[in-house]
């Protein structure tokens, strides 16, 4: 199991815990707050244990709370990215996939797909971009836009969990 090397989770008070882990799920510090409120012990120094707890909190949340987490994600190569308004984590993740290097035609396709996807589903396209390049992301976009709303909502939650897991691992 992977542990947090430079961080002793059990030594954090509630505010520090939320400050440290509140951005693991995009703009959803309530998940970290609930994770802390469930009790902090040595097991939370294991990345997998904390990941499982936070994922369970989101999975057990009501439909509207889940959608709020999904809706908090920025569009890929969207206006927030162009304007430099992404969270540090989102900026690094998108840059790591080469999204910041899109040609004007690719940016236009991202914009077209972002708009069509949000119109169809009512929330932004979410994908864990780690290990993917912009071509694979565009292909996933084109495929997933054909899903029904419930399938895509569930897929978005799975992707949000993957993003959260990647963010936790980066803290080790």
Automatic annotation (TrEMBL):
Keywords: Decarboxylase, Lyase, Purine metabolism. Residues 11-168 form the Oxo-4-hydroxy-4-carboxy-5-ureidoimidazoline decarboxylase domain. It is an enzyme of class 4 (lyase). Pathway: Purine metabolism; urate degradation; (S)-allantoin from urate: step 3/3. GO terms for molecular function: 2-oxo-4-hydroxy-4-carboxy-5-ureidoimidazoline decarboxylase activity. InterPro entries: OHCU_decarboxylase, OHCU_decarboxylase-1, OHCU_decarboxylase_sf. It catalyses: 5-hydroxy-2-oxo-4-ureido-2,5-dihydro-1H-imidazole-5-carboxylate + H(+) = (S)-allantoin + CO2. Pfam families: OHCU_decarbox. Its EC number is 4.1.1.97. This is 2-oxo-4-hydroxy-4-carboxy-5-ureidoimidazoline decarboxylase. It comes from Spiribacter pallidus.
């Amino acid at each position: 199991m992977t542990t947090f090397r430079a961080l002793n989770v059990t030594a954090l008070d509630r505010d520090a815990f939320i400050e440290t882990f509140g951005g693991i799920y995009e703009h959803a510090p309530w998940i970290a707050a609930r994770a802390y409120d469930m009790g902090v012990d040595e097991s939370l120094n294991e990345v997998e244990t904390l990941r499982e707890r936070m994922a369970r909190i989101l999975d057990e949340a009501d439909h509207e709370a889940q959608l709020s987490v999904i809706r908090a994600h920025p569009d890929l190569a969207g206006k927030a990215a162009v304007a430099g308004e992404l969270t540090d984590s989102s900026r690094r993740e998108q840059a790591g996939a080469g999204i910041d290097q899109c040609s004007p035609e690719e940016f236009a396709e991202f914009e077209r797909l972002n708009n069509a996807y949000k119109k169809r589903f009512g929330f932004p396209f979410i994908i864990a971009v780690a290990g993917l390049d912009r071509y694979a992301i565009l292909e996933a976009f084109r495929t997933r836009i054909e899903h029904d709303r419930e399938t895509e909502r569930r897929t978005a939650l799975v992707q949000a969990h993957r993003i959260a897991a990647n963010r936790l691992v980066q803290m080790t």
